[in-house]
Amino acid sequence: MTVFSISLSAPAGKFAFPQCRQVVFPGNGTNINSPRKRLPELGGLVLPKHPWYQLEAGEVARLLQTDMTKGLSPAEAAQRLKTFGANQLKEQERLSPLKILASQFTDVMVLILIGATLISGLLGEYADAVTILVIILLNAVLGFVQEYRAEKSMEALKQLVAPEATVLRGGSEVRVPAREVVPGDILLLQAGDKVAADA
Predict the structure, then answer these.
(1) CA distance 154 to 184
(2) pLDDT tens-digit profile of 20-62?
(3) Can you give the residue ranges of every domain in the chain?
(4) 101, exposed or middle or buried, with CB in 10 Å at 0-12, 13-18, 19+?
(5) 3-class SS at 157?
(6) With contact defined as beta carbons under 8 Å apart, do 18 and 68 qualify?
(7) Helical spans, DSSP H, in 38-172
(8) For the chain, what is the radius of gyration of the CA atoms?
(9) pTM attached to this predicted model
C-alpha cells in the first residue's frame, strides 16, 4: 500500500488517505499504472504521468474523481466495484483428497523407488520389494496427511479472518468488507486496524 498523505483528526484519533491500487485488466493486460491514458475500462479516470506514490493527495483524489471529505457516493462505489472487480486475489483451485494422494507418487525419488520395487520383484528379491513398497506407502500416507491438514488449516484461516475496512462513502464512515474497497475510496485507519495488503 502506498500512503499519499495522512490527515489526522486529533479528537477522533483517525487517519485518512485515498485508496489507489495497481489494476491489470485481464482481457488486454492494460496496467492502470502505465503512462497517462484514458481508458473506457477505467470509467473515464485519467492515469497519471508519474507513479501514484509521487503525487500529492489532492492530485490523486482529482485523478480518481473522489472527494477527500466525503469519499465516493455509494452508487459510484458500486459502479467501480463492477468496473474493477473485487479487491481480492483469485483463489487457487482446491485440491481434492484424491489429487493430494496422487501427488504423493509424482516425486522423482518416489518414481525411482517404484522402479526399484518392480526390478526387485522381477529379480525374485521379494523381501526387498516389499520393504521398498512399505516405505513408499508410509511416505505417501505421511505426505497426504500433512498436505490435507495444511489445506484444511488454510481454509479455516480464510474463514476466520474476513478483513473489513472503514471508508468514507457519501460523507459517512462505513465498514465494508475489504474485498469491496475500490479505487478512489478514502480509507480511515485507527491504531490496531488491519489493512488489506493491496488497499
Answers:
(1) 31
(2) 444 433 333 444 444 444 444 556 666 777 787 888 888 888 8
(3) 7-89+163-189, 97-159
(4) middle
(5) helix
(6) yes
(7) 57-63, 74-84, 97-103, 108-122, 126-160
(8) 26
(9) 0.52
